[in-house]
Structures are given as C-alpha cells and as structure tokens.
Amino acid sequence: MLDSVTSLALSSALDGLALRQRTIANNIANINTPDYHAKVVSFEKALAKSVADGSGVSFATTERSPDPTLLNGNNVNLDSETLANIDALLRYQFAAKAVEGPVSSIRAAMKTA
C-alpha cells in the first residue's frame, strides 16, 4: 500500500505533469504568435525536497523559457516542445500506473471478500 507521503507525492507529480502538458499545448498553439515567449513548468526539485522533508506536497511553477527568440520575438521550438510533450506523457502514464496499482489491489480484495 502507498503511504501518505508517497500518495501525496504522486498526486503532486500528476498535477505538475498535467500543468506541463497544458503549458506545452499552449506553447505549440502560439508557435506563430509574434513576441510570444514559451513557458516551462518546473516541479521536480520542489517535489524531491518535499519528499525528503516528509510532506510529499509540492506545487509546480511556470516560468518564461530562456530559449533564444527568432526574428519575430517568438521562441517556441516545435521539436523541443514535441519531445517535452512525449516525456511528460510517459511520466504521467507511469505515475498514474503507480497510483492505480494499490487501488486495483483494494478492488480485487473487495470482490473476493
């Protein structure tokens, strides 16, 4: 069974990854918008610190991407955004499976009881 710190950490990770996916989608949607600056989501360091501190609760932050801008002032890189989206999706699926495992075990135990 997942202890409370693990459950909270997984929940925080899922929230951060979902925000990252929404942010990437927004960046891609604005790829042709002049002077649009891509955003990046950070939460991994804060999450690791919260787990080490014993709480497991952390919050994602969104910042302006430091990537260089093009002549139109836009700095969205479709290749980078696509790779980041695939990475976020795989991480989200992994975290969701980690949450799903204990829930499935409880359901199975309830059916046999």
UniProtKB/TrEMBL annotation:
- Entry's Gene Ontology BP terms: bacterial-type flagellum-dependent cell motility
Source domain of life: Bacteria
State the InterPro entries in the record: Flag_bb_rod_N (IPR001444), Flagellar_basal_body_rod_CS (IPR019776), FlgB (IPR006300)
Can you quote a single GO CC term? bacterial-type flagellum basal body, rod
Subcellular location per the Swiss-Prot or TrEMBL entry = Bacterial flagellum basal body
Q: Where is the Flagellar basal body rod protein N-terminal domain?
A: 10-36
Q: Which UniProt keywords apply?
A: Bacterial flagellum, Cell projection, Cilium, Flagellum
Keyword match Zinc-finger: no
Q: State what this protein does.
A: Structural component of flagellum, the bacterial motility apparatus. Part of the rod structure of flagellar basal body.
Complex formation = The basal body constitutes a major portion of the flagellar organelle and consists of a number of rings mounted on a central rod.
Query: Which family does the UniProt entry place this protein in?
Result: Belongs to the flagella basal body rod proteins family.
What is this protein called in UniProt? Flagellar basal body rod protein FlgB
Q: Write down the species.
A: Cryobacterium ruanii
Upper lineage: Bacteria, Bacillati, Actinomycetota, Actinomycetes, Micrococcales
